[in-house]
Amino acid sequence: MLDPRISKLAHTLVHYSCRVQPGDKVFIEVVDVPHVFTCELIRLTRQAGGIPMVKLDSNEVKRALLLHGTEESWRTVGQAELQLMKQANCYIGARGSYNISELSDVPKEQQDLYEKLLFQPVHLDTRVPNTRWVVLRWPTASMAQQAEMSTEAFEDFFFHVCTLDYGKMDAAMQPLISWLGRTDRVRLKGPGDTDITFSVKNIPVVGCSGRRNIPDGEVFTAPVKESVNGVIQYNVPTIYRGETHHQIRLEFKDGKVVNASSSNTAKLNEVLDSDPGARYIGEFAIGFNPYCTKPMKDILFDEKMAGSIHFTPGNCYKETDNGNRSSVHWDMVLSQVPERGGGEIYFDGLLVRKDGRFIVEELAGLNPENLT
Description:
alpha+beta
């Protein structure tokens, strides 16, 4: 018997997130996900009149391809997937992981080939600006272990957070979109020596309420490329290219990361040296999902945590274009709730959020008790 939670989640992705219409071509890409969920996505896509195009993948297979890939092979595969993506009106990406460190021993140069010749042109340059897309993680025992929860408890949490009332969230975030859109200077303060300033003047602002990510709950923009100055110390663990980093600290001068350290400083700088744009910021976002309350070492959850921000080295999104281009897009998260050291957000000198809670009436609808 089909778990009704699976059907409800698939319905959210097809009808709310992607708004599939008759004739839409829907690229469904699943990685280490049970077939029952993929089949339900196919059924609901067809029921909506869409045309499903399905790619099944696994991290174990991807590791083999990365290890043995060449420029010619990735260029060939990238061109094939690019043609498929160019046909798509919608994209649903569901990604499971039986081992979060599956790709940790893939050499940097092999990772770079994949990101340059497939991920960048297919996803960042084509899928993101040209399709109605949504991505999500699939709950696995590996994810439950990361979250330090039992498998059953994690599954209950996962389906709860992924099927909340995103329409209500969408209405509540409109004042923040408007306010950030008329802001020039932003200042962030937080644990350690975090004190950073930048401009967002004339950069578009985008709200995310289940249309792009599940779970969701953020408003994002990008800093003016060379305006970032100061220090930020992230207090949420992050995984990139299979490596876990704790306490990443970045120091900026005129937009560029001039000093970077973490629990794995060599690997951190290896990524930041991937190309010139990797040392500039491509995204600034404010998170407010009321059910995401603690780090899980999974960025699609962690970047949405209530009371958090993420400040992202690498490529910007075209919707919030600040001119930065890179094969890297690494969402790094700072939680400003009291139990993680607190913190403040200022818009043009006015304190708007303190210790993870919006303190101005116009934005209070985004505090957790008003979204649940």
